């Protein structure tokens, strides 16, 4: 767009200069003094180029100072985006809380989205477990908080200063694996996801987590199938 505007201004200015010097245009000045007309055409050309330069500078400023609009989508297999639901493993160890059964359902795709036209720089994502414990090592994620007897409670991914998420674009982050994560209480279990980037305030989203027994999970599967057919 900037290139087209600059080219149009240059062509328009050139036409004004040529028309006033060769084509006999008076530019509405009411005089046939060729020198005065040519000087006026040059002034108009200069003003036009100055206006284009100011416009280009304004666009550059907006691009440099505009704020990104970040969001995230965490999709576990057999769950809807940002609505994690898991089947509990059979309790063979006498655990006082339910444990997520470790199969494909426990693997999540993580997609960072930038819904603004402005690029997000130095992006970071933090995932905090609420009412959950026993999270294993996550490739590509760094542990941030650790509680004795519970284990890692918060993990973080950092894109670094050399990595950006372009405007109206998305980026796939390292996958998550919640196999064998333990439910510490049946109330208010959730993932609290916080997004940060240069120039914007941290944004947090709370994603409720459900761990279901076999009968509950079977009922959920039927509800999920019905919902899929309606969408």
Briefly, what is this?
The protein is α+β, with helices and mostly antiparallel strands. The chain has three helices and 14 strands.
Architecture overview:
This protein has 231 residues and is α+β, with helices and mostly antiparallel strands. Helices cover 30% and strands 33% of the residues. It folds into two domains: 64 residues; 161 residues, Immunoglobulins (Immunoglobulin-like). The strands form five sheets. A five-stranded antiparallel sheet has the order 7-8-5-12-13, with no helix packed on it. The chain has a three-stranded antiparallel sheet with strand order 1-3-10, with no helix packed on it. The chain has a two-stranded parallel sheet with strand order 2-14. Strand 12 and strand 13 form a beta hairpin. The longest helix has 32 residues. The radius of gyration is 30 Å and the shape is elongated. The mean pLDDT is 83.
């Amino acid at each position: 767009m900037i290139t087209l505007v600059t080219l149009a201004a240059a062509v328009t200015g050139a036409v004004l200069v040529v028309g006033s010097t060769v084509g006999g245009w008076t530019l509405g000045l009411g005089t046939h003094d060729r020198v005065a007309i040519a000087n006026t055409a040059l002034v108009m050309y200069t003003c036009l180029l100055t206006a284009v330069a100011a416009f280009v500078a304004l666009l550059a400023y907006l691009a440099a100072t505009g704020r990104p609009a970040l969001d995230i989508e965490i999709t576990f297999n057999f769950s809807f985006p940002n609505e994690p639901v898991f089947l509990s493993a059979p309790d063979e160890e006498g655990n006082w809380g339910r444990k997520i059964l470790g199969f494909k359902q426990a693997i999540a795709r993580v997609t960072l989205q930038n819904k603004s036209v402005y690029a997000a720089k130095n992006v970071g994502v933090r995932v905090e477990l609420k009412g959950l414990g026993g999270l294993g090592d996550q490739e590509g994620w760094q542990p941030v908080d650790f509680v004795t007897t519970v284990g890692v409670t918060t993990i973080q991914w950092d894109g670094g200063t050399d990595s950006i998420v372009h405007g109206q674009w998305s980026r796939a982050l390292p996958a998550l694996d919640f196999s064998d994560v333990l439910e510490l209480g049946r109330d208010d279990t959730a993932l609290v996801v916080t997004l940060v980037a240069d120039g914007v305030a941290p944004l947090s989203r709370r994603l409720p987590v459900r761990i279901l027994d076999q009968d509950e999970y079977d009922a959920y599967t039927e509800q999920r199938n019905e919902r899929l057919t309606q969408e």
